[in-house]
Specification:
- The complex is a heterodimer of chains A (502) and B (256).
- Chain A has 502 residues and is α/β, with parallel strands linked by helices.
- Chain A has 2 domains: 10-94, 2-Layer Sandwich (Alpha-Beta Plaits), CATH 3.30.70; 166-471, Aldolase class I (TIM Barrel), CATH 3.20.20.
- Helix content of chain A is 29%, strand content 18%.
- In chain A, the strands form 8 sheets. Chain A has an 8-stranded parallel barrel with strand order 11-12-13-14-17-18-20-21, surrounded by 6 helices. A 3-stranded mixed beta sheet of chain A has the order 6-22-23, with helices on one face.
- The longest helix of chain A has 25 residues, at 442-466.
- Chain A is globular and about 90 Å long.
- Chain B has 256 residues and is an alpha/beta fold.
- Chain B has an 11-stranded mixed beta sheet with strand order 1-2-3-4-5-6-7-8-9-11-10, sandwiched between helices.
- Chain B is globular.
- Chain B starts with a helix and ends with a strand.
- Classes of the chains: A alpha/beta (502), B alpha/beta (256).
- Chains A and B meet through α3, β5, α5 and α7 of A and α2 and β12 of B.
- β5 of chain A pairs parallel with β12 of chain B, so a sheet runs across the interface.
């Protein structure tokens, strides 16, 4: 009783006048918040994670959730979160595990950047009338082309590296089968196939039922090498080496044994119920030279037919690391910012390690240009891309394309409750429990994800048209189309943008 | 290759001179020979070419004379590689199935993340041998070595078997971190290992008679490849290192 109960995080109330005792809240809540007893719905608010499944399913809008209904004595330093973390760790002596992305209220650079539009001196372009070129090619571009003219035809003599052709610069990032359900993965797979873009498999192998979509899938090779064999590598449209992740830079991953069911076991190629442990480093990569060896081994295994990407977490010296990667024969570098989501990460890493993707992309792009090797790799930005404006801004800061993750999950119903690590996702996304997975209908969810990609693509072309730009290539690295609004001078120097009014 | 034998020739045995050859054309020549039905490919003058048999599939035997570079047989699925010489780092890296026999020593991370097949090394290996080997259903990777090994043997091991037959009993093992983070599979070492050299999560136990019987075919196989007397090895004492838990990290975390 030294510490006693800490206040409930959420208070549920049921309007009993509205409630018709249908019991949908009871059925839908996997956290056992609700029970129907003696003709009345009873609640245990302490179990609530605010996933909103009950709210979404209640036919009478009879349920209400209030966050933090009990006030602590307010204090600017000893926040509720700080105090509750101490209570937790003083009881358990353990590392706090958390979900989703960075939950600290750091200022968001995207929200202090504004986009440009044409007025009078050069006309804006109407995307309804004029073609807008959003097609994006990811991979190496030759620094020069050798050509020969013969009978009026031009023959390209330079041998070209394989590139991925995207119809929109928006891809869906790597979320493994295991971290998310097969229904969630196949919904995304259908959506990217329909919209002409790509998704990542994550480090969980490629389930057989996704083979029809393999031409739109980037297969991942991470430090655990789960699910990796030559057939897997040959199936992917591209291969991505995962060095790090924005949500937890510098550490590995553990898929708890509870999530390794029969099917997950088969795809990852590990026994049922065993922990899938991805070590912090790849133990065959201890240097930038070793990375080059892994890149080349993957290319050699697939006969140089597939682009190879390297994903790193955005950290202090990302620019120098990316410059090393660009010289390793890799075709693209993925920079995952510190707002990137995750199924589970130690809270201390999620909230405190890494840097924002906006600054990382700008500095990587600048470094590669200054060394004359920007054409050697494409740049993919990820981690905290919430809307089409973020896509436009990060491309203007130097990215070629983006990966979205959380946004795609939200499109499938995710309420960002951040409890993915419990494996009980009531939306059927971050769970392997068959009854919960069955709640996610790939017919509908794939439509939602495709709609989102389509809508953002439309907005992106409108934003470009307004700025008088008709090709995504003219937006890329075009910092003149950005202005910093109340950003300090040092950040604006890193981003290489001028302040508003200048 | 095709010019030498004609487009339709089926050659059981092929010989490639790798002198001065880059690894990509070398692998292309190997793949071309396999595609034409070669069952045995002998490669001479190998000097540091990496990725030999990388991702190679099929039932073919490669006889390699010289010193292959890193990642020999990476992602390999099926073939056999007999190396007459030493190997650089990570032979058998993420190998799926097949056999690698090394008449010499090999560098660091031998059999890294290997998921099936066998690797036999006549002499010693470097650091992190058999790191993160894993098994699944009928696939159980096996690494057998006749000499010494350096630190972190079988680190993060998730499945399979490492059998260390050396060094001779007069030179005790003094390499730390054996099996650190091990959560599946077994490391069997000839002689004894002092507890202070075991990694976190590893525990030592004697072999049962059944377990000894299980390793004797491997000892005989090793002895056959390298012309050693199996009886000396069969008669000696062994100790095994196993995970103290299959869930080494299960109690490390508390929910937010």
């Amino acid at each position: 009783m030294t510490i006693g109960s800490v206040p409930v995080k959420f208070r549920i109330s049921v309007d009993h006048d509205q409630c018709m005792l249908c019991g949908r809240c009871v059925e839908n809540c996997p956290y056992d918040v609700f029970r129907l007893e003696n003709g009345k719905i009873h609640v245990n608010s302490r179990k609530c994670v605010a996933c909103h499944r009950c709210i979404a399913m209640c036919p009478r809008d009879a349920i209400n959730i209030r966050e933090r209904p009990v006030d602590y004595r307010s204090h600017p330093v000893w926040t509720t979160e700080a105090r509750e973390a101490i209570y937790n760790q003083s009881r358990t002596g353990k590392i706090i595990l958390a979900g989703m992305g960075n939950a600290k209220p750091y200022p968001i650079i995207f929200d202090s950047l504004v986009l440009d539009a044409c007025q009078v001196t050069n006309p804006s372009i109407d995307p309804l009338r004029e073609p807008m070129e959003l097609r994006t090619y990811l991979g190496k571009k030759p620094s020069r082309l050798e050509t020969r003219q013969r009978d009026g035809d031009v023959e390209v003599l330079t041998s070209l590296s394989p590139n991925l052709q995207l119809e929109t610069p928006i891809m869906v990032g790597h979320m493994s089968y295991g971290a998310i359900s097969l229904n969630a993965q196949s919904s995304i797979a259908r959506a990217v196939t329909e919209t002409g873009t790509f998704m990542g498999t994550g480090e969980g192998g490629l389930h057989q039922s996704l083979y029809p979509y393999q031409d739109h899938m980037i297969v991942q090779v991470a430090s655990g090498r789960f699910g990796v064999d030559i057939n897997y590598l040959e199936r992917g449209a591209a291969i991505e080496i995962k060095i790090g992740q924005g949500a937890k830079p510098g550490i590995g991953g553990h898929l708890p044994g509870e999530k390794v069911c029969e099917d997950v076991s088969c795809t990852r190629m590990i026994p049922v119920g065993s922990d899938a442990i991805s070590p912090a480093p790849h133990h065959d990569i201890y240097s930038i030279e070793d990375l080059k060896q892994l890149v080349r081994s993957l290319k050699e295994a697939t006969e140089w037919k597939k682009p190879v990407f390297v994903k790193i977490a955005a950290v202090h010296n990302s620019a120098a690391i990316a410059a090393g990667i660009a010289r390793s024969a890799a075709d693209a570098v993925v920079i995952d910012g510190f707002r990137g989501g995750t199924g589970a990460a130690p809270r201390v890493f999620r909230d405190h390690v890494g840097i924002p993707v906006e600054a990382a992309i700008a500095s990587v792009d600048a470094k590669l240009r200054s060394q004359g090797i920007r054409n050697e790799v494409s740049l993919i930005a990820s981690g905290g891309i919430r809307e089409s404006a973020d896509v436009a801004k990060v491309i203007a800061l130097g990215a070629d394309a983006v990966y979205i993750g959380t946004a795609a999950l939200v499109a499938m119903g995710c309420r960002v409750c951040g409890t993915c690590y419990r494996g009980l996702c009531p939306w059927g996304i971050a769970t392997q429990r068959p009854d919960l997975v069955a709640r996610l209908d790939p017919e509908i969810a794939s439509r939602n994800v495709a709609n989102l990609i389509h809508a953002w693509t439309l907005e992106l072309s409108e934003l470009m048209g307004a700025a008088g730009i008709n090709s995504i290539e003219s937006l890329r690295g075009n910092r003149d189309r950005l202005r910093g609004y109340l950003l300090d001078e040092s950040i604006m120097k890193v981003l290489d943008v001028k302040p508003v009014g200048a | 290759m095709s010019n030498q034998w004609g487009p339709d020739a089926v050659m059981d045995r092929v010989r490639i001179d790798a002198a001065g050859m880059h690894y990509t054309p070398l692998n292309m020549a190997i793949r071309a020979a396999v595609a034409k039905g070669a069952r045995e490919i002998e490669i001479d003058h190998v000097m540091g070419q990496r990725f030999i048999a990388d991702g190679l599939k099929g039932d073919v035997r490669l006889i390699i004379h010289g010193v292959p570079g890193g990642d020999l047989g990476m992602f390999m699925s099926g073939p056999t590689c007999i190396v007459h010489g030493n190997c650089d780092h990570a032979p058998g890296n993420t190998m799926d199935s097949g056999l690698i026999v090394i008449h010499g020593s090999a560098g660091d991370a031998v059999a890294h993340s290997m998921r099936g097949g066998k690797v036999f090394v006549r002499d010693s290996i470097g650091y992190r041998g058999g790191i993160h080997m894993k098994q699944y259903r009928d696939k159980r990777p096996i690494l057998v070595l006749g000499g010494n090994f350096r630190a972190f043997l079988g680190e993060y091991m998730a499945g399979g078997l490492i059998l260390a037959l050396g060094p001779p009993p007069d030179r005790p093992i003094r390499e730390r971190g054996i099996g650190s983070g091990i959560h599946g599979g077994r490391i069997i070492v000839r002689g004894d290992v002092d507890d202070e050299y075991l990694g976190v999560g590893a525990q030592k136990s004697p072999l049962t008679r059944e377990e000894r019987d299980e390793i004797s075919p491997l000892i005989r196989e090793f002895a056959t490849y390298f012309q050693r007397d199996p009886d000396v090895l069969l008669d000696d004492s062994y100790v095994q290192i196993r995970p103290s838990s299959s869930r080494p990290f299960a109690s490390k975390y508390t929910w937010e």
